[in-house]
Structure formats: C-alpha cells, structure tokens
Design goal:
The chain is an all-alpha fold. It has 10 helices and no strands. 83% of the residues lie in helices and 0% in strands. The protein is elongated. The chain starts with 13 loop residues before the first helix and ends with a helix. This is PQ-loop-domain-containing protein. One of its GO terms (molecular function) is basic amino acid transmembrane transporter activity.
Length: 319
C-alpha cells in the first residue's frame, strides 16, 4: 500500500491536479446521472420516452464493469461506486416497468370504456344529424364555413401561444441544465480539493507495467464487454427516437451528465499518463467512455430536431 505524502502540494504537478479534478467531476456526474430521468418519469407519470432495452443493456455493462473491478482488485471506492451504478440501474428499470404496467392497464380500461360509450351514443348522434339537416338552403354551408374559419383562427392563436410558451420553457430548461452542470463540476472540484488537502487523495505514480498487465489479464475481457455494452446501449434509444420522431419523456440533463461524466473520465485517464502500457490497460474504459460521446451527440441532434415539432404537433392535435 502506498504511503500518502505529508505535503501533497509539494509534489503535485498541473497534469496530476487536472487528472484528479477530472476524475472527481466524473465521479460526481455518475452519482447524479440517473436522478434527472427518475424525476422526469415521475413528473410525466410514464416511462414511454426511454427505451427499456437501452437501460437493460446499460445494466449489463455496469454488471460487467463491477465484475471487472472486483476481479482486478481495484480500490474499495471504485467497487463501491460500481455497486451503486447497478443499484441505481435497478431502481430506474423498476420505475419504468411499474409505469409501463400501470399505463398499459389504464389504456386497456379506457379503450373498453370508449368502445362502450361510442356504442351507447350511436343512436342519439344519428338523430341529431337528421334533425340538423333540416333548414334553409345554404344555411348549413354558411354555418360550416363560419365554424371552419373560427376553428382555423383558434388553432392559429393556440399555435402562436404554444410557440411563445415553448420558447420560454426552452430558455428556462437551458438555464436549469447549465446551472446543474456547473454545480456538478463545482461539487466534483470541491470534493477533490478536500480529499487532497486532507491527504485522502494523492497522485498515483504509473507503475512499471507488470501490475497493470496482471490487472489487464484478469479484467480486460470484462472491460471490453462492458465497453461494447455501453456503446450498444444507446442504439435502441436512438432508433426509438428516430422512429417516433420525438424525444418526449427523455431528460436532456440525463444525457448531458452522461456526456460530462464520459468526457471527464477519459480526460482523467489521459492526463494521468500517456505511457503505452497504461493506455493499453485502460483502453476498454477509454473506448466505453469516449465512444459513447459520439452517440450522445446523435441524441442531442435528435433533441434539437424533434423537440419543438413534437410539442407543436401535440398542441395542434389537442385543439
């Protein structure tokens, strides 16, 4: 076990400090990652926006990550964090299953009631149509034209109001997400500073390579499996968004925290060392973190492309 330095500031280089800060910010991002989506599902009373296959594949990635960390004999904090990931995944998956079952039952019940209601109202509707057909010639056309014009004006006013409300909500959401990201960065940086000053954290020298190769032999396969799961998990979500042409029900902050966590995790590794043995040992985790950033960028593009039309179309159909 490495002995902590009494005065870590004397031995701390800028790259070591950045590696520690990025690693701590990444840790804070992962801790808060699933909270926005849990809140979004609760507010919507539904989990239809998020792909259950996405969460299940991600869960498999977290399980293999935990197995790899335990096999490699990593420090207890890393293993504890991997366990936390698995528990958080189970909570989110359970919430989604709960809402899917509840909403499926409600949909079946409403469908049955609507069929029975339509059957019972069939005769009165027909009689009203027959009575409304009597009147002066042309009066029906004039009433229909006036009603159509009034309906078009109402839809136009509603669409204009919806755009104004949507822009205000979008601006508010942008501010909220920005503040949340800054707070996570501040928490991560403060956590690293406290750990450094208290001696709980100190820069870890890169080993000669033997220990790292032993760890790679024990955990590298699981690391690559985890990376493949993380890369493949977002594909069902991207396909679902594209097929429905909507990102409704998804938390943008959830994916922003994922992007922040992956970016700072990869940066923490690269700032620690660029030695070939060290990079090859951590390559699975680099692929899993930096590779998913590309898929997150695709989801951000879908938020931009599908976010506004989905709200407008829903408002128009409701009118």
């Amino acid at each position: 076990m490495q002995t902590l330095a009494l005065h870590p500031a004397m031995h701390l280089t800028p790259t070591e400090a950045l590696s520690g800060i990025f690693g701590s910010v990444s840790l804070a991002s992962w801790i808060f990652l699933l909270v926005p989506q849990l809140i979004e599902n609760y507010k919507q009373g539904s989990a239809e926006g998020i792909s259950l296959l996405f969460l299940c594949v991600w869960f498999v990635g977290d399980v293999t990550n935990l197995a790899g960390a335990a096999w490699a004999g990593l420090v207890p904090t890393v293993i504890a964090l991997a366990i936390y990931f698995c528990i958080a995944d189970c909570i989110l998956i359970s919430q989604c299953l709960y809402y899917n079952v509840i909403n499926a039952r409600r949909t079946r019940k409403e469908s049955t009631l609507s069929v029975e209601s339509a059957a019972s109202e069939d005769a009165p509707l027909l009689s009203r149509r027959d009575s409304s057909s009597m009147g002066l010639p042309g009066s029906k056309r004039r009433r229909s034209s006036a009603a159509s014009k009034k309906r078009r004006d109402s839809i136009h006013r509603t669409d204009s109001l919806a755009r104004i409300v949507e822009e205000a909500q979008g601006s508010k959401a942008w501010i909220k997400n920005t503040v949340s990201i800054l707070c996570v960065c501040a928490v991560g940086t403060a956590g690293w500073a406290i750990a450094w000053q208290s001696g709980a954290w100190s820069p870890q020298p890169v080993g000669s390579g033997d220990e790292e190769q032993d760890m790679a032999l024990g955990a590298q396969i699981l690391g690559y499996i985890s990376a493949v799961c993380y890369l493949g998990a977002r594909i069902p979500q991207i396909i679902k968004n594209q097929r429905e042409r909507s990102c409704e029900g998804l938390s943008l902050l959830f994916f922003l925290l994922s992007l922040l966590g992956n970016a700072t995790y990869g940066a923490g590794i690269l700032f620690h060392s660029l030695q070939k043995n060290y990079i090859m040992t951590n390559l699975p985790w680099l692929i899993g973190s930096l590779g998913t950033m590309v898929e997150d960028a695709v989801i951000f593009a879908q938020f931009s492309a599908f976010g506004e039309p989905a709200v407008t179309d829903a408002t128009a159909s409701a009118v």
